[in-house]
Design goal:
The complex is a heterodimer of chains A (501) and B (178). Chain A has 501 residues and is mainly α. Chain A is built from 20 helices and 2 strands. A two-stranded antiparallel sheet of chain A has the order 1-2. Chain B has 178 residues and is mostly helical. Chain B has 2 domains: 88 residues; 77 residues, no CATH class. In chain B, helix 3 runs antiparallel to helix 4 and helix 4 packs antiparallel against helix 5. The chains are: A mainly alpha (501), B mainly alpha (178). Chain B: Pfam families: TctB.
Chain lengths: 501, 178
């Protein structure tokens, strides 16, 4: 067990007093930002990026792990107490969680969510420890055509599987790819879409794109349609679970990762589908089926554990292949790149101290999250009452700090604003934001891999499909793309809409 | 899940034939303009020298540009057939309300003021202007509390980032005095 010793070394790194403190600060900051209404985990991570700029890479990653889990947990608190989920992964939690809160069982809902997160993250991270080195080992043999194929799969999956409209998904992806083109061509150094500007020659920093689309875009969008009576959060006491509730929740907690982790790990992930699946499963298996729709605790415990494990699964593809499949993972990849660290199969060899330190701090962060957040839940719930003008003014404030801190140039603030306007328009007209972010991050990498593959084959297009792996991936891509057509020929199934409750 | 529907919820797409309803065509125009821009730029890239390998720096921009044009047309077709993008929902979003352009413009002004002022007055002042301006734009009218919060937030952030976290921000004349 080579990875076990490395993991122990990782704990050695993560448990030094400084790093432990950073992880705790990360968890608290992440929860603080994540609880704020309107801020999902992706925006929380993007807004908190500049906090880590001055730190060493390992320290920054450790703080990041805390921010990541804290942000996710904060989001579920918001959806339970306000019934308006900030991210797709907590949509399901809101269904039962808010009903529970309305019936005076908010404390139990929060506890079921918090412990669900804990269990999901523990099992998910353990699976990550076991799986990631294996995947990295396999991925070392992958060549340029394979990487290109996987990236195409990620593009197609994120535009077709998630979201309601494919055209709009592809439109968003293409906008992202266009932003990714700006700057000097990495292979020949020729400038593209820079319009003679020196500042644009460096390309548009991914952090600015993420902050612009998530934070500035969201603020402008909310400002244009501000609800003048904000939703009233339900007051809540200290989370706890009685023995009856424990009897009902332990199985959903353990089942969650079984559904969540695999879905997170495939590059068509996201937490939307697995959390709905978990909800449907728990509903079917529950002895309290009649309570579903009016506050069944299984409907909180299962999906929360699933979402958390799915986030760990996402890290497998992110760390070993450099492929982010959720918005939050995309922002994390951007953070890695800030430090000049390129995730991929070689990461585990070249930066093994960093990777295992990160993985160890995922465990540490999970424990801290539970220890800190159960007692602090009443405090967090007060944050839901923050006056909205201050909330969105604060988001814009920290978005500017983040963009300016990237390189200390005013032009970055202007680029941030333009991208924010784009994010506003995309929200208004139902263009999903994630494909654009993915396009910016993966577009340049995909282009490099494609050109490398074609270089090897001397320009023949067969160079893109000369491995069994890439052919398989393209078959999957074809199935995903042609699914609407294929489905007509399949026998019609009963409409299984899990949200139909 | 819903992979086959190009259109949004049909109940929502009940066609009321007016330009306001079709404003989504603006996105098509945006995609079209982007596509043309990318293509023109791509064609202008000189490839006679520094070419390495069979695929130069032109290929991908040309593909992206063409796809932008194709998607612009497909989206226009979808919109004209009554398809509507679903506006994003959120905790504080009231989809029934009309777009409040005044707030958006004021907010943009506050944001751009920060960009203009940060080099001249330094971060603590310009960011305070941003916060206060944004809070004002969003409807806060506490003329004592708002600027106090703004000043406290921006000075605290400056000290935290510039001092503790090692992220340099311009102090400006104010910090020169203090």
């Amino acid at each position: 067990m080579d990875s076990l010793t490395q993991l122990i070394d990782g704990f050695g790194t993560a448990l030094t007093p400084t790093n432990l403190l950073l992880a705790a600060i990360g968890v608290l900051l992440g929860t603080f930002i994540g609880v704020l209404p309107g801020i999902g985990p992706a925006m929380a991570v993007a807004l908190l990026l500049p906090v880590t700029y001055g730190l060493e890479p390992i320290a920054a990653m450790i703080m990041f792990a805390g921010i990541y889990y804290g942000g996710m947990f904060g989001g579920s608190t918001t959806s339970i107490l306000l019934n308006t989920p900030g991210e797709s992964s907590s949509v399901v939690t809101a269904i039962e969680g808010n009903q529970m809160a309305k019936r005076g069982r908010g404390s139990q809902a929060l506890a079921a969510a918090a412990i669900g997160h804990f269990v999901g993250a523990m099992i998910g991270t353990t699976a990550l420890v076991l799986l990631a080195p294996v995947v990295a080992g396999l991925a070392v043999d992958l060549g340029a055509p394979d990487y290109f194929a996987v990236m195409i799969l990620a593009f197609v999956a994120v535009t077709s599987v998630l979201g309601r409209s494919r055209v709009r998904g592809f439109a968003s992806l293409l906008i992202g790819l266009t932003i990714g083109l700006v700057g000097l061509d990495e292979m020949t150094g020729q400038s593209r879409l820079t319009f003679g500007s020196l500042q644009l020659a460096d390309g548009i920093d991914v952090v600015i794109v993420a902050v612009g689309l998530f934070a500035v875009g969201e603020s402008l969008w909310v400002a244009s349609r501000l609800r003048h009576q904000p939703g009233e959060p339900i007051p809540v006491g200290r989370p706890w679970l009685g023995s009856e509730d424990l009897r009902r929740t332990w199985k959903p907690w353990l089942r969650g990762p079984l559904i969540g982790f695999p879905f997170g790990a495939i590059p068509a992930g996201g937490a939307e589908i697995p959390t709905f699946l978990s909800y449907a499963t728990e509903k079917r298996l529950s002895r309290h089926r009649d309570e579903f729709g009016s506050g069944a605790i299984e409907g909180v415990a299962g999906p929360e554990s699933t979402a958390s494990a799915s986030a760990s699964g996402t890290l497998v593809t992110m760390l070993t292949l450099g492929l982010p499949t959720t918005a939050t993972a995309a922002v994390m990849l951007a953070a890695f790149q800030q430090y000049g660290i390129q995730p991929g199969p070689l990461l585990f060899e070249r930066e093994s101290a960093l990777v295992w330190g990160l993985i160890a701090s995922l465990f540490v962060g999970t424990v801290l999250l539970l220890v800190l957040n159960l007692p602090m839940a009443p405090v967090w719930s007060k944050l839901l009452r923050i006056p909205r003008p201050y909330l969105y003014a604060g988001i814009l404030f920290f978005a500017s700090v983040g963009a300016y801190a990237v390189s200390g140039q005013v032009v970055d603030l202007l680029v941030l604003f333009v991208i924010g306007l784009l994010g506003f328009a995309m929200r208004r007209y139902g263009l999903p934001v994630l494909p654009a972010v993915l396009g910016v991050i993966l577009g340049p990498a995909a282009e490099q891999q494609m050109r490398r593959a074609l270089q090897l084959s001397d320009g023949s297009l067969s160079g893109l499909v000369n491995t069994a792996f890439s052919v398989t991936v393209y078959l999957v891509v074809a199935v995903v793309l042609l699914w609407p057509l294929l489905r007509r020929f399949l026998p019609r199934r009963r409409a299984a809409e899990p949200a139909g409750a | 899940m819903t992979t086959n529907t190009e259109t949004a919820d049909p109940a929502e797409a009940r066609p009321r034939r007016s330009w306001r309803d079709r404003s989504e065509l603006g996105i098509c125009v945006l995609l079209l303009v982007l596509g043309v821009l990318v293509l023109i730029d791509a064609i202008r890239i000189p490839t006679d020298f520094t070419q390495r390998g069979p695929v130069g720096p032109k290929a991908v921009p040309i593909v992206v540009g063409v796809l932008l044009l194709v998607i612009a047309v497909l989206l226009a077709r979808d919109v004209l057939r009554g398809g509507r993008g679903e506006s994003e929902t959120g905790e504080d979003v009231d989809l029934a309300a009309p777009t409040d352009w005044r707030t958006v413009l004021l907010l943009s002004a506050a944001f751009l003021a920060n960009a203009v002022l940060i080099g001249v007055l330094g971060f603590p002042i310009s960011a305070a202007v941003l916060f206060w301006g944004a809070a004002y734009a969003l409807g806060s009218r506490a003329y004592v509390r708002d600027p106090l919060i703004a000043a406290a937030l921006s000075i605290a952030t400056y000290l935290l980032f510039d001092g503790l976290l090692g992220v340099p921000l311009p102090g400006g004349p104010l910090m020169g005095v203090l």
